[in-house]
Amino acid sequence: MKKGQEPEQLDKEAVGRITCRMLQEEGHSGMPLQKLWRLAGMLICLLCITGGLCSAFLSGFGIPYSAPVFGMLLVVSVLFWIGFSRLPLEGVYRLLAILGTLIGVSLLLLLLQRDVIAGYMSAVNGVRTRLNEAYDGTLALYQASASAMQMTVFFGFILFLLAGLLSAGICYRTNPAVVLAGEFPVLAGIGIAGGIPSFFSFFLILLGTLGMLSAAAVSRADQRDQDSARQARQMTEQMKSSVNVWLLLQAVVLSLLAFVLVRPLTNTLLQAQEAGMKTQNGVLQAVWQLLPAVSGGRLKLSVEGVGGGVSDGTLTDQDGFYFGKVQALKVTVSEKPSETVYLKGFIGTDYTGTAFEEADGESFVQAASLWKLDGNVSLGVENLPFLRTYYAENVVFTGEGDDAKPELSANAASSAVTLQVENLAANPNYTYVPYGAFLNDYYQVLGGDGALAGQSVQQDIFSCYPRKQLEEVLEDWNETKQQESTLDQAESAYAAYVQAHCSSLPENLSYLQEKFDLELETKESADPKEAEKNWEKIKTAVVSELAGNYEFVREPEAVPEGKDFVEWFLKESKEGNSVHFAAAATMLLRACGMPARYVVGYAAPASLFQGQEDGSYQAVLEDDNAHAWAEVYREGIGWTVVEATPGFAALVTESDGASGQKEKEADSPDTPGEVFDQEDTPEAETPGIGNRIFRVVKKALATVALLITVCGIAAVIRRHILCKRRRRGRKGEALGEQIQRIYRSFAALQKFNKKSVCSCQEERFAKQLGKKYPVFSEKTAQKLANIVLKACYSDQGLTKKECQFVLDCYEKLAEAVSKELSPTKRLVGSLIFCFW
């Protein structure tokens, strides 16, 4: 005991030493348990985040997998990476260990490559299917399917790599940025692709992320306390671990209770909502059946998905009631289609600026009376594609040269299919007919060669050729025919009539003709055959123009009164639905020299047809299958679909162009969407969905770039103002106040550089400043301290020269610090702290 020391003080010190020794011994004895709890926390966080991300992808795209095997692979992957992170390896040795692990995974991948490839293709199919549903597109699917075990094998490799990435931010070094960098791309990609992850996957991700963030916060707090309060940390370690475990158990129990109770309630509400929607649709269906003609009145209860007024060709008046999910047509076909089935309703020829109108029927009848067609000339023209195809399939020429005589083959047969259309709730003013169909005598053609008039009950059975097959047969016939039949002569006459009556442009749209003349360089003459030779180039130019510069929206802005519909769309709004794109495509095709018309009807993708017990295939078309498109007349073939609406272009196969190629069509599977062969997938895809996703991402990036630019400009302006104020002083500010403000910036700059010196009031200020910043001599530093102290305690006698000296010292320090900093920190110091 030291002299003068009190007994009470001695007792306190002794108790303190004994207590510290006891705490240290308890701390050492509790270290294994503490490490065990930490490893358990890492295991739970890594299991939750890794499993949650993979589960979000699998559930979001409806991908089947084996849950027991998946869970086992998840646990093995997490345990492996946790053990790997605890290995006493650093630097090159850790990199070599990671490289060895990747080599082992690659060898295993090589052994299981067949299962992995099958799982990959099925996963891609799941993503593309969800993209098609979310963006109304038809991205091609691989003709491949994988079992649940193959999908599990594929995602096992994904699981292993993902766990390795996340373990770097959870186990090796607790870093939330690494974990969030792994979570965000996965979740953002699922959201952009239209995936709908399960509630449980979000629960796992949230639980793991919160646990990781809590661990990171505790780790940072421990680091701060390590040097200043090591004994206190050891004393509270046991208590903290117990509290953390208790809170974790409470969170898990409460979360599980919430999951068990809330999820069934949510499902019940969703089921009730779905039942309500079905009931509502059933009521609307019954109302429509009771009032079948109401769509022609002023109320316009139209189930046309593109708008209530398009059924009669009106473009600007699309207001009215819109019914969701109302069944419009039932289509039954004898063979599964390999292409989109287009059913024509209204056909418009004459453009008025606000609507397309039917052609003049009288002028057509007068012209058609000279075409050597028997009976009803309108039906004769409509049947020309079917009859010419049938004739080309079965005609045989006997003899050679001019003596060749056409005769029908003894085994005459037709490859036409049977297609039945039943009108459930579509506009009864029109009969919906496929391309390449044969029409009986009881049909009435509107406008001479336009739409078919409606019937009180439509349940028609048509014989028709698939569009692609019809075009290929007629292309071959046009090249190889030895003689022109009466049908060929009538078709040539009709082609001339169409060229004269379906190629006009209004004066306000004549600029389109000049624009496409310059771009295509194809119209050297007015000969329609010249335009026909460039048909593929023209179609590509028109579709690319609309897809690249205009945006599809379901509810476009209304066209102002008195404005031309197409001109407003092309020049002003630049966004619209299929009506806008079809009307614009019609005018653009005419500008390129192709006779074109505007059509409204229904489009049935091939994937919509489902096999029936009798061997037929059936599709029920709803209101959202209503569609508008353009059609062009190709001499020697007939009217051909031109799909210009972004997202719908993938529905049209190569038959819509003059490809002239003969390709063997593989049998289409019954599974919806699997209608393309694997090797044809890249060619079958169109940029419709990609364009729309790209536009969404582009808008988001543009918004972010704009915000960054605005913030940058604001930072530059703020920097300019503050630097100017530092050099010249504030208005009405005394010299002493200005010197003090400059010195505060002087001290802040040293702190920013993490090389601060003592206060200028201390004697060692000059030596410290000169030692840490050699640009200052001891004499200069002492003079700076004297001026600052004078400004602080007595600003009498201060001169502008002294103020300028302090400012020069600051600028000298700023230049020296700028050379020591990294570019990023230099930019932060300039724009945010405005040091220079």
How are the elements arranged and paired?
Blueprint: H1 7-60, H2 67-85, H3 92-111, H4 113-135, H5 148-172, H6 176-192, H7 199-228, H8 230-290, E1 327-333, E2 341-348, E3 350-351, E4 356-357, H9 361-368, H10 377-382, H11 384-394, E5 395-398, E6 405-408, E7 417-423, E8 430-431, E9 433-434, E10 437-438, E11 452-453, E12 459-464, H12 467-480, H13 486-501, H14 511-520, H15 528-533, H16 535-549, E13 551-552, H17 565-573, E14 575-576, H18 578-591, E15 596-604, E16 610-611, E17 617-622, E18 626-634, E19 638-642, H19 681-684, H20 687-728, H21 735-752, H22 765-772, H23 778-793, H24 800-820, H25 823-831
Parallel strand pairs: 13-14
Antiparallel strand pairs: 1-7, 1-17, 2-9, 2-15, 3-4, 5-6, 7-12, 8-11, 10-12, 15-18, 16-17, 18-19
Describe what you observe in this structure:
This protein is elongated. α1 (7-60) runs parallel beside α6, α1 (7-60) packs parallel to α8 and α21 packs parallel to α24 (800-820). The chain contains 25 helices and 19 strands. The strands form 6 sheets. It has a 6-stranded antiparallel beta sheet. Strands 9-2-15-18-19 form a 5-stranded antiparallel beta sheet. Strands 3-4 form a two-stranded antiparallel sheet. By secondary structure, the protein is of the alpha+beta class. It has 3 domains: 17-256, no CATH class; 310-660, no CATH class; 729-831, no CATH class. The longest helix is centred in the N-terminal third of the chain and has 61 residues, at 230-290.
